[in-house]
Design goal:
Lipocalin; 23% helix; alpha+beta; 9-stranded mixed barrel; disordered C terminus; 4 helices; 340 residues
């Protein structure tokens, strides 16, 4: 005897009710990847204002893990990092937390606190070659002593040529202020505007296997020559041909022949995931990699009038000239001893 339609329907409803919780658990264990909204020309939409204003920095403090095993460890580390940011040792200029420089949180990726952007090498430190490490030390000492025979001896940031600390990229790192980035897309280019120093990077787009041609090696430009293509949800950007004077970014060194590969992926409505790798055999013993989250910037981008108000560079050079004269001045002013 064939079952009646009502009996079949009841059986199907019962099976669906039993399968519902199991299916929900399966979906929770294996969530579907996020798909960003599309632009009018079909690309994943990365447009808008984003910020990487985090307390997390490029390198990791020695001995720390990349992530912690428990929320209690995360809370203790964040409390200590916040205290350090509020009162930097030897801060004679009051550059700690203030009404214009808030205390930012530590970045989280996948819900876990990150102690550095660098994920490889495993210790979270820049893998400098010995000669590059010596140059880093010498540049740091010169910077601290305000040494400068002329503007060319100072960093590109001092000279208002690029954004401070390498925040305009590539790779993009986080500064302590003016951290906003505005992304604008067309079908053939992506523009990334940095609030700091109003730098604009233009990424020329191609297709996988058919990228636009890089500039000739003899042509060196600020922020490099950036070529991009889409791989599914991700914008992949390869940059070469860096300007020779751009190597000292305060946060790290990089040679003009470096190659930087970046990946921009919108992983949720409120997060743009940024990953990068730096291939620079002249400076580092290995390729190093990092990643960071960007979150929406709710404040407007403000004008960054660096050149118009750049009294810092003349003051640095004036202080250097004063230091040059100090030995002669001290000799002239030294009081004579009796009998001389």
């Amino acid at each position: 005897m064939r079952p009646r339609p009502l009996a079949l329907a009841a059986t199907a409803l019962a099976a669906a009710a039993l399968a519902g919780p199991a299916a929900a658990q399966a979906r929770a264990a294996h969530p579907q990847p996020y798909h960003a909204p599309r632009t009018a020309f079909g690309q994943p939409d990365l447009q808008g204002s984003w910020t990487n204003a985090w307390l997390t920095q490029l390198q990791r403090r020695p001995g720390l893990p990349l992530t912690f095993a428990s929320p209690a460890e995360e809370a203790a580390y964040e409390q200590a990092a916040t205290a350090r940011s509020k009162a930097a040792p030897g801060d004679a200029l009051g550059q700690g937390a203030s009404e214009w420089l808030p205390v930012y949180p530590l970045a989280r990726i996948g819900g876990r606190v990150r102690t550095s952007w660098i994920v490889s090498p495993a210790d979270g430190r820049l893998p400098y070659r010995p000669e590059a490490a010596r140059r880093v030390a010498a540049l740091g000492a010169a910077f601290a002593a305000a040494v400068g025979d002329g503007p060319e001896d100072r960093t590109p940031e001092d000279r208002c040529l690029v954004a401070g600390g390498g925040s305009s990229g590539p790779p993009i790192v986080n500064a302590n202020s003016a951290t906003a980035k505005q992304i604008v897309q067309t079908s053939t280019e992506v523009a990334i505007l940095s609030e700091m120093n109003h730098d604009v990077r233009i990424v020329r787009l191609g297709t996988p296997g058919h990228p636009p041609a890089h500039l000739p090696p003899s042509v060196r430009v600020w922020m490099g020559d950036s070529i991009g293509h889409w791989e599914g949800e991700t914008l992949v950007v390869e940059t070469t041909n860096f300007h020779p004077q751009e190597g000292n970014r305060l946060a790290f060194l990089m040679s003009p022949d470096a190659k930087v590969t970046e990946r921009f992926t919108r992983v949720s409505p409120t997060e743009l995931r940024y990953a990068f790798e730096v291939d620079d055999p002249a400076t580092f013993t290995q390729v190093w990699r990092g990643e960071m989250p960007f979150r929406p910037e709710t404040s407007p981008l403000y004008e960054y009038a660096c050149h118009e108000g750049n009294y810092g560079l003349p003051n640095i050079l004036a202080a250097a000239r004063l230091a040059d004269r100090k030995p002669a001045t001290a000799a002239r002013e030294e009081p004579k001893r009796p009998g001389e």
